[in-house]
Write a structure and sequence with these properties.
heterodimer, A: mainly beta, seven-stranded mixed beta sheet, four-stranded antiparallel beta sheet, 0% helix, B: mainly beta, 54% strand
């Protein structure tokens, strides 16, 4: 399978704990996106990287959230001091951005987080 | 600001019936529009996309959508529903070719009965 993969698929944690999620994009893709999806809503953009550079962050991404893509390949999303409101599905997507070309975002299966 | 409105959070059809899922967008610039499908416990899969090449776009699994600028709509249709089409469908807009963030609608759950 050469699609976008995410790990873990499910995470249950207690309020106040830190959690980290990993995303492995499609190998040649230079852009990587994080979205959050809560129940009954569509995905909401959090942040994206082009190679290792984080180019845009949403206002949804509070100071407790941090994302990295250190070598321009896989990415991690960390949530510190989790709150019950952080419970959601966290989706990763990747795309290939070429000059003058169109890009399509391909999504992974998501990590479902439950904060107790 | 760009936005997407999906009319009807839940649509039910019988197997073999026409599927129509509605999407209206708001954009100050020519938009690029997408339909994604999400099956239970899975990520989003691209069904089709509109990038200004043709107003009628054909996608996978027999789905198609028509871009109507005058109506600011991009409705998704399929002539004959299959049981396997039961899923959640999301319409999304991107404001430029450079992509960056997609703005999604709230989704429409399609149920198909036999």
């Amino acid at each position: 399978d050469t699609g976008v993969s995410q790990d873990p698929r499910h995470k249950i944690t207690k309020r106040g704990q830190n959690v980290t999620f990993r995303c492995d994009p499609i190998s040649e893709h230079n852009r990587l996106y994080w979205y959050r999806q809560t129940l009954g809503q569509g995905p909401e953009f959090l942040t994206y990287f082009q190679n290792e550079a984080q180019l845009e962050k949403s206002r949804l991404l509070s100071d407790r959230f941090s994302a990295e893509r250190p070598k321009g390949s896989f990415s991690t999303l960390e949530i510190q001091r989790t709150e019950q409101g952080d419970s959601a599905m966290y989706l990763c997507a990747s795309s290939l951005r070429t000059s003058g070309g169109w890009e399509t975002q391909y999504f992974g299966p998501g990590t479902r987080l439950l904060v107790l | 600001a760009q936005s997407v409105t999906q009319l009807g959070s839940h649509v039910s059809v019988s197997e073999g019936a026409l599927v129509l899922l509605r999407c209206n967008y708001s954009s100050s610039v020519p938009p690029y529009l997408f339909w994604y499908v999400q099956y239970p416990n899975q990520g989003l899969q691209l069904l089709l996309k509109y990038t200004s090449a043709a107003t009628l776009v054909k996608g996978i699994n027999g789905f198609e959508a028509e871009f109507k600028k005058s109506e600011t709509s991009f409705h998704l249709t399929k002539p004959s529903a299959h049981m396997s089409d039961a899923a959640e469908y999301f319409c999304a807009v991107s404001i430029n070719q450079a992509g960056t963030a997609l703005i999604f609608g709230k989704g429409t759950t399609l149920s198909v009965s036999s």
